[in-house]
Amino acid sequence: MSFVRNAWYVAGWSQDFAEALVPLTMLSQPLVMFRASDGRVVALEDRCPHRLLPLSKGRRIGDTIQCGYHGMTFGTDGRCVRVPGQDNLPASAYVDAFPVHEAHGIVWVWMGDPALADRSKVFDMPEFSDPAWHLHLGDKLHIRANYLNVAENLVDPAHVSFVHPTTLGNAASENVPVHVRTSGEAILAWRWIRDAEPVGFFRQFGGFAGNVDRWHYYHLHLPSTAVIDFGSVDAGLNCAEDERDRGVRIFALHFVTPVTEGYTIDHWMHLRNTAIGDEAASEQMDAMFRVAFAEDKEVLEAIHEEERRPQRRKPIRIAIDKGPNVYRKRIRDLIAAEATEDLGAAEKPVYVYHD
After folding, report:
1. How far is it, in rounded angstroms, from Cα 354 to Cα 328?
2. What was the pLDDT predicted at 202?
3. What is the mean pLDDT of the chain?
4. Residue 100 and residue 65: Cα distance in Å, rounded?
5. Do 129 and 15 fall within a single domain?
6. Eight-state DSSP code of residue 197
7. I want to staple 108 with a disulfide (CB 3.0 to 4.6 A). Which of 101, 202, 246, 338 is the partner?
8. Would you say 22 and 11 are in contact if contact means Cβ atoms under 8 Å apart?
9. In a shared domain, residues 227 and 244
10. What pTM was computed for the model?
11. Hey, which residues does 34 pair with through a beta bridge?
């Protein structure tokens, strides 16, 4: 399985979890989630250890889940608290409990070793808590494709001109060079399109009539969180690259969660420095984003289908693939590191290396 497990993944928005049992799958692991009486969101393995019936097909009793087959009951920590018909509780009668973190209306689940779950590593941005920015939770895009292809799409400014010609791009950017930086924690690809016609998105939300300077900065944080900083400013202002707040600036955030090898959910939202508190503007932006993201979905699902067919020759790679190539390598390295246990240097080494 090509999943990085020691990481935080988005399960959904806070509003998705209440008293009802919610079954979902992340990294091919079935989970059952609910909000406990103390307000915490709980994530448990969705499989009774007795006859393997999903616990989500049982019922909630207080802060416990009763299996719908023989009534074994499990608490929020995964431990069995009742076996009908017997007093003893076998040590093996438990389900895995997964660490959960909730902030800014987003619910994250740690899918790896619970001992390594570090809440300080949950993705965050200063703009989440800045009153000068409007935070709006969007929607979930269900894509029948591998998550690596979805994430690669989100560090690729070059596709915008061709896949989104009426919403997020136009022909003016087709031959503008893309800059890539891979030395930081996040892979970054960016470019500016100077003195060009505004794209459809900023015609509607920026009110630009004349030419603009516009930008795209794609930040891909491993394993699969993408932040796309894009916007426009009147070309006459000659805006410097570090003065993007002078224009209409949007952060489109994509929390890409692998469901299975061939199925991905892209939880998307945005932050903006315009139309603060205007929910009508949020709905209008959502509508345009849905059009653009449906265009991505069509492309990515078609690619996935072709990848599953026999191929007579190897796919080629071109200059714009630098960011995706580095991303794939980093993912492979993380998966390889999780697959082994490093015991450290031996006190009395048998092998002495000289290279």
Report:
1. 31
2. 83
3. 91
4. 18
5. no
6. P
7. 101
8. no
9. yes
10. 0.91
11. 42
